Amino acid sequence: MTSLEPSVAFATSLRCSLGGGDGRVSELKKDLENQLVLAPLTKGGNYAFRRLCTEFGAKVTVSEMAYARKVGKGDRKERTLFVRSENEGIFGAQIATNNCAEAVSACNYAQENGAKFLDLNCGCPIREVTRRGLGSALMRKPHKLVALVERMVSECSLPVTVKIRTGLEEDADAEKVLELVRDLGHVGASAVTIHGRTAQQRYSGNANWDLISKVSAESGVDVIGNGDILTAYEAKDRLADSGCLAVMTGRGALIKPWLFSEFEKDYTWNPTPMERIGVYRTLVRFMKERFRDDEKGRLRSFEFLRFHMDFFSRYRYFPEEEHRERSKEYPLIQQREKADLGFRDADVPPIEVLLQRPVDTVNLDALLGFLWDSGSDHEATRLFEEEALSLRKQTLLACSAGE
Predict the structure, then answer these.
(1) Where are the alpha helices (DSSP H) in 33-133?
(2) Helix 295-312 and helix 273-291: axis angle, to 10°?
(3) In angstroms, what CA-CA distances link 271 with 261, 280, 314, 332?
(4) CB neighbour list of residue 206: distance below 8 Å, 6 or more residues apart
């Protein structure tokens, strides 16, 4: 196979011809166009969190990755990943497989549960997935991957999308990615999501939006760009500058699930501590409704909530007027890892410091208990404030003793 450099006219005509008479494909394109999509997130993309994001305006959501073989065999845990909440709009089911029959079986189950499209995971770099020849391992043999997608498009009852990386090793190869995306489009993939990092990079380094933009412009295929989107203005800029059909956010949504509301209404919200605690309590309420408000449900929910609180603690406010231009050069999500506040900061409310502390430096289960047991946002906020004041007092006493 060789890579060609199509003219703009050719790219446009090719994009229009893909999926030709298939109304499902054109309808999906309409649903995805100019949207901010919630990425498939292992553990993070659970039912309750997707519901939370939808409450904040997410129009397109994707399930956690499920093993198609297990779904087809009726595995209860795996099938649970495809349960769609009532308020979710355009819901995609993501699968890991290298077998068309498995994909068809999983697709049928996903469609029964309200999925509008089937997404093939070709980007997961985790050893547990790649050792089975799944996830990013599928990119090692592009010919086989394209043949698999061709069969899936022919036999699956839902439009098929594909999620890939920019390559396998440290250095991305734009021409190889361009060639692969073109081939996937030729065999009927409705869209290709490109996570702008190689599998080896995992989530480190900046996403390669130059490569994403090149492929979007030259492939003739509808591309969804993914990587380093934390704010609405970054999402808008990436969408406009890359020419992508849509953009996708993962960690950005985990840090601030209200990102979708910001994107829809074109503003930047800096919620107060009580407002943030209110968001967290909403997630807790959805967890209770999903797993029940009893001891067993509490234990199950806390497994997820510990994960979510780790991301919530990374929230920082990046006002557009100060950060929009800078974000084009260096993504803001790469600047949010280190907590820059301490309990010795007299000018910062202790509760703000507490909410930004790394979760391994606080009594996390106590905080989750406040969220779970409180009857109101006011009550939960008061308990957080008391905990913060206690920690500040301990810090100041320890500092005094060390002087």
Answers:
(1) 47-55, 68-72, 76-80, 100-112, 127-130
(2) 140
(3) 13, 12, 14, 18
(4) 196, 227, 228, 330, 331, 334
Q: Where are the alpha helices (DSSP H) in 189-272?
A: 209-218, 232-242, 251-255, 259-265
- Chain centroid to Cα 51, Å, comes to 13
Q: What percent of the chain has pLDDT over 70?
A: 93
List the catalytic residue out of 100, 107, 122, 124: 124
Q: Which domains does the chain have, with CATH numbers?
A: 8-265 (3.20.20.70), 273-316+338-402 (no CATH)
Q: Which two tokens stand for residue 393?
A: 């007092």
Distance between first and last Cα of the chain: 70
How many residues are recorded in the chain? 403
124 is catalytic: yes
In this prediction, residue 402 carries a pLDDT of 63
Q: Residue 289 in contact with residue 257, Cβ under 8 Å?
A: no
Nearest to 91 by CA among 51, 134, 34: 51
What is the rounded distance in angstroms from the CA atom of residue 114 to the CA atom of residue 356?
A: 37
User: Residue 388: in which H helix or E strand, if any?
Assistant: helix 377-402
3-state secondary structure of 72: helix
**pLDDT tens, residue by residue, 79-133:** 999 999 989 999 999 999 999 999 999 999 999 999 999 999 999 999 999 999 9
Q: Are 402 and 303 in contact (CB under 8 A)?
A: no
Question: Beta-strand (E) ranges in 97-251?
Answer: 117-122, 160-165, 191-195, 223-226, 246-249
Which residue from 368, 360, 352 is spatially nearest to 299, judged by alpha carbons?
368
* Residue recorded with tokens 């990374």: 314
- 66 forms bridges with which residues in the sheet? 95
Does the pLDDT of residue 337 top 50, yes or no? Answer: no
